[in-house]
Specification:
Blueprint (H helix, E strand, L loop, with lengths): L2 E5 L5 H10 L4 E5 L10 H4 L9 E4 L2 E4 L1 H12 L13 H26 L8 H21 L12 H10 L14 H11 L2 H10 L9
Parallel strand pairs: 1-2
Antiparallel strand pairs: 1-3, 3-4
Helix pairs in contact: 1-3, 1-6, 1-8, 4-5, 4-6, 5-7
């Protein structure tokens, strides 16, 4: 059986959510972060040389990297669901937004999180540049969601599953305000209404308030 090793408050929520959307059987193993360091516990770090979430096991397969895991699960178990075929008119948009999540949006939040811990002055040029990069990324998402219900277009896809973490749970590590992003906030309310998302977050991070506004 597919085993999802889920680290609380991490990108591995994407994998739990994907499994719930597909309705496939899986075993969920939950690991809590260290109460002081907020890092993964030794048992999780021992799963893979990177020591980072997410990690899955599927028979003899041990796989890390959320994008790779999403593609693997969809290819093995998805039966064509949650992805767009090459002949679909939104195929290129689907590819773009799927890779945008970890190629642009999540790195922008991660860099700002790290810089924020250095207590740099607000006028620091690197800090301003990285803040500008995040603002640009969020602006692109806002513009896209002002034109379509989902990132790829009319259909909900794995591009959405990849992106939502950076717009929600990541804000526990890098607080930022979505007040000026009305399309993103409306999108997150649509995500919040999805039963599979509700099940996934309740199973993976029970009791964690969801940052959906």
């Amino acid at each position: 059986m597919l085993t999802v090793h889920h680290l609380g408050m991490s990108q591995s929520e994407r994998i739990v959510w994907l499994c719930e959307e597909l309705g496939i059987p899986y075993e969920l193993k939950i690991y809590d972060r260290d109460a002081v360091t907020r890092l993964a516990p030794p048992a999780y770090k021992a799963l893979h040389p990177l020591g980072a979430a997410p990690v899955i096991q599927d028979g003899d397969v041990l796989l890390a990297e959320s994008g790779a895991i999403v593609e693997y699960i969809v290819a093995r178990y998805g039966k064509g669901r949650l992805v767009l075929a090459p002949d679909h008119p939104d195929f290129a948009r689907f590819l773009y937004w799927f890779h945008f999540a970890n190629g642009t949006l999540q790195p922008a939040t991660g860099r700002n999180m790290i810089l924020g811990r250095l207590d740099l002055p607000a006028e620091n040029p690197i800090l301003r540049a990285m803040k500008g990069r995040l603002d640009l990324a969020l602006g692109l998402v806002e513009a896209r969601l002002g034109k379509a219900d989902n990132l790829a277009g009319a259909e909900f896809t794995t591009a959405d599953i990849m992106a939502v973490f950076s717009l929600t749970t990541m804000r526990y590590f890098l607080p930022y305000d979505l007040a000026s992003y009305s399309a993103i906030r409306a999108y997150l309310q649509r995500i919040a209404a999805r039963p599979a998302y509700q099940r996934a977050m309740q199973k993976g991070d029970p009791g964690m308030p969801l940052l959906l506004t």
